């Protein structure tokens, strides 16, 4: 074992750096999905579309502002603002006109409705942005690279990948935890998550909380997409690819668990990057192996709470 | 229970044998329009190929119809989306023939679609032109009377860039592969590896990476490649994934440590723009580069490229050229079949017969459909470079590899034939153009 670490320790170090960055992006998307499920009790397949639209919008707004001569340093605030804009517009629209009609409905109906919405939004993306890859990487290039020592060699990493993505994930995690535990609105959300009926009976306006939570979840999905946009070419289908992994994170973490989503994202991000170095054939399946392993031992997820079935 | 007499049985037997032949000899009415069922990706990641190819098809149909149609008959393409998958596509092709009454079918982009749907040409007795899919298995594992591929295929599209690499960089010692994790990614690697082991034994493969199809992040793969420093990085990825991989790689200066070999990169050059590094090996699945230095028919070539560019505000990419090849092949075959019948309209069987051995002109060269149905298309490979004419990378130091030279002979499987190649081919193959 010690010999293995001696031979591969440096590679493992690189894998950890890659894994942290990957985990950051996974967390930002999955945490919104988890939050929405925790409060609304709806598995929102259209979360992937919000992610994709967040990415496309951030790229488009970035390209537009760059054309107006916006300085490069402003590109990262632009990503955040564009995500907030997407969430603030689409979140209330979807919650008010679609989801509100299916609360309390059968789960299969909820799945079908959000899946239909996902399909519609996929086509809307193609109508607006076409099918050719779109990219806008000012934020990535503006921050440059850093050379990480690797034995006698060095490995260039982008500062965006190494610092910005993990920082956003940590800020989101800490901010969300503080918001839910230290603010009145956050506590009300937790109350609705824990026992919707009791919270409503005590005078909490559940409809308002649902609207607020879904809008916030939509913003987080769009933020994940916006932060992806400087690093990736955007094409039709990116939402579908992301939503599958997000569901794996949510299931493994336990439904509605924020810290669980962070830990699971870290496990999956690190698992994937370590696989690329030492067993590339398993890269694709590592997140799902982790999910199956966790669910076999804890069917309610890592941080999930077993609920008493009410009859 | 009804029983047949011996005489009735004989009559039925003769009827079974003779009736189809008699029917096929019946005169066929000239159709009011020639319907073409076209399968292509209109949704999903491969719509980056499918939508431009549909545009090219519609544009050519307009041009052909404005000029009087094919043998006096206007053509009408009817498009079907490959996106929902092969089961859906099989049903759609049956519907196109049985309900829409299409006269021929152009299918498909995905090799999986082609493998699933080409056997329908037997069942439906309709001409099927494989206009873009590259799998070598179609005509190596079965024989089809009604199916033809109007372009090259995986074997020639992989072998030509390999020969170019070995001619221009004969001292390579290490190589890594980063391909999409699906049929084309795996098959194109098998073809490359088999040929490389035969042409230059001893090249060490230091990493084989097959990221999930649709990946949007290759940073881990790039870190590993930066650490390994292979002489060559081979990738047949396409679409958004190739664009993402190249952009993430160049940002981290991977192109300064290794040479990329990208056999299908042409379709991504316009999107990459100046992000594509210079001096890396790029291919276009054929010879139809927009900066082709000496096309066989410059007027036709420039006419097609300029018309597409004016109509859609972008240059045609290789699926557009492949679609055009199918249209031109159809035109040539119909005119040949009509001429053979002294102006009468051909049956499906007669039209299929006209395709066998057909040589049809393309703007850049000619393509011959071999006796097994496979098209022999020349391959042009070069190094990425920039000039004043194009706002994106185009090849320089181009070499042309004739289709027959880089295709497995009729009756041989590509993987078997590639094993028989010798290093002498490196010197013999290809010639500079430009």
Automatic annotation (TrEMBL), chain A:
Membrane topology type: Multi-pass membrane protein
Family: Belongs to the binding-protein-dependent transport system permease family. LivHM subfamily.
Residues spanning the membrane: 20-43, 50-70, 76-95, 102-121, 160-180, 209-228, 234-253, 285-306
Protein name in UniProt: Branched-chain amino acid ABC transporter permease
UniProt keyword terms in alphabetical order: Amino-acid transport, Cell membrane, Membrane, Transmembrane, Transmembrane helix, Transport
Keyword Lipoprotein appears in the UniProt entry: no
Domain of life: Bacteria
Organism: Roseomonas fluvialis
Source species taxonomy: Bacteria, Pseudomonadati, Pseudomonadota, Alphaproteobacteria, Acetobacterales
Subcellular location: Cell membrane
UniProtKB/TrEMBL annotation, chain B:
Keyword Signal: yes
UniProt cross-references to InterPro entries, sorted A to Z: BCAA_transport, Leu-bd, Peripla_BP_I
Residue ranges of every copy of the Leucine-binding protein domain listed in the record: 34-375
Pfam family membership, one: Peripla_BP_6
Keywords: Amino-acid transport, Signal, Transport
The keyword Transport is annotated on this UniProt entry: yes
Family: Belongs to the leucine-binding protein family.
Protein name (record): ABC transporter substrate-binding protein
Species this protein is from: Roseomonas fluvialis
Lineage of origin: Bacteria, Pseudomonadati, Pseudomonadota, Alphaproteobacteria, Acetobacterales
């Amino acid at each position: 074992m010690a010999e293995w670490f001696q031979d591969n320790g440096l590679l493992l170090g690189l894998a950890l750096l890659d894994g942290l960055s990957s985990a950051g992006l996974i967390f930002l998307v999955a945490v919104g999905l988890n939050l929405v499920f925790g409060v609304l009790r709806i598995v929102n397949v259209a979360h992937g579309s919000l992610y994709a639209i967040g990415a496309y919008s951030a790229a488009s707004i970035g390209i537009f502002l760059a054309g107006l001569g916006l300085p490069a340093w402003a590109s990262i605030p632009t990503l955040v603002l564009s995500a907030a804009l997407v969430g603030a517009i689409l979140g209330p629209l979807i919650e008010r006109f679609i989801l509100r009609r299916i609360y309390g409905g059968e789960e299969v109906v909820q799945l079908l409705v959000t899946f239909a919405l996902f399909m519609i939004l996929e086509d809307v993306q193609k109508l607006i942005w076409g099918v050719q890859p779109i990219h806008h990487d000012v934020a990535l290039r503006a921050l440059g690279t850093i050379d990480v020592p690797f034995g006698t060699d060095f490995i260039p990493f982008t500062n965006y990948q190494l610092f910005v993505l993990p920082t956003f994930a940590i800020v989101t995690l800490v901010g969300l935890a503080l918001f839910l535990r230290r603010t009145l609105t956050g506590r009300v959300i937790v109350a609705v998550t824990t026992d919707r009926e009791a919270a409503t009976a005590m005078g909490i306006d559940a409809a308002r909380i649902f609207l607020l939570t879904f809008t916030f979840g939509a913003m987080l999905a769009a933020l994940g997409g916006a932060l992806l946009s400087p690093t990736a070419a955007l094409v039709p289908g990116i939402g579908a690819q992301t939503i599958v992994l997000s569901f794996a994170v949510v299931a493994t973490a336990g439904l509605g668990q924020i810290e669980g989503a962070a830990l699971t994202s870290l496990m999956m991000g690190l698992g994937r990057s370590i696989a690329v170095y030492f067993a590339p054939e398993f890269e694709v399946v590592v997140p799902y192996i982790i999910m199956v392993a966790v669910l076999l031992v804890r069917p309610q997820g890592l941080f999930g709470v077993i609920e008493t079935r009410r009859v | 229970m009804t029983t047949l007499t011996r005489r009735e049985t004989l009559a039925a037997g003769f009827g079974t044998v003779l009736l189809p032949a008699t029917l096929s000899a019946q005169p066929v009415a000239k159709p009011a329009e020639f319907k073409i069922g076209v399968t292509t990706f209109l949704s999903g990641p491969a719509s980056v190929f499918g939508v431009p190819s549909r545009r090219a098809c519609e544009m050519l149909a307009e041009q052909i119809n404005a000029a009087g149609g094919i043998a006096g008959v206007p053509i009408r393409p009817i498009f079907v989306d490959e996106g929902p998958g092969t089961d859906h596509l099989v049903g759609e092709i049956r519907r196109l023939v049985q309900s829409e009454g299409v006269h021929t079918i152009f299918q498909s982009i995905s090799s999986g679609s082609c493998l699933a749907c080409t056997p329908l040409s037997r069942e439906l007795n309709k001409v099927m032109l494989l206009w873009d899919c590259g799998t070598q298995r179609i005509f190596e594992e079965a024989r089809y009377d009604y199916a033809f591929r109007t372009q090259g295929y995986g074997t020639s599209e992989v072998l030509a860039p390999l020969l170019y690499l070995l001619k221009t960089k004969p001292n390579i010692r290490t190589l890594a592969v980063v391909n999409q994790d699906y049929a084309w990614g795996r098959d194109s690697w098998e073809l490359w590896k088999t040929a490389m082991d035969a042409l230059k034994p001893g090249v060490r493969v230091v990493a084989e990476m097959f990221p999930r199809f649709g990946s949007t992040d290759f940073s881990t793969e790039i870190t590993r490649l930066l650490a390994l420093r292979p002489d060559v990085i081979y990738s047949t990825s396409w679409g958004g994934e190739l664009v993402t991989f190249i952009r993430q790689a160049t940002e981290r200066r991977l192109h300064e440590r290794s040479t990329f070999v990208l056999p299908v990169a042409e379709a991504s050059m316009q999107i990459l723009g100046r992000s594509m590094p210079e001096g890396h090996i790029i291919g276009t699945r054929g010879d139809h580069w927009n900066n082709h230095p000496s096309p066989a028919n410059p007027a036709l070539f420039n006419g097609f490229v300029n018309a597409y560019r004016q109509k859609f505000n972008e240059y045609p990419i290789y699926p557009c050229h492949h679609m055009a090849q199918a249209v031109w092949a159809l035109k040539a075959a119909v005119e040949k079949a009509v001429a053979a019948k002294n102006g009468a309209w051909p049956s499906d069987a007669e039209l299929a017969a006209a395709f066998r051995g057909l040589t049809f002109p393309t703007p850049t060269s000619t393509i011959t459909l071999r006796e097994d149905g496979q098209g022999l298309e020349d391959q042009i490979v070069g190094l990425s470079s920039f000039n004043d004419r194009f706002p994106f990378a185009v090849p320089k130091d181009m070499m042309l590899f004739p289709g027959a030279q880089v295709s497995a002979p009729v009756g041989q499987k590509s993987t078997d034939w590639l094993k028989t190649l010798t290093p002498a081919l490196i010197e013999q193959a290809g010639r500079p153009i430009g």
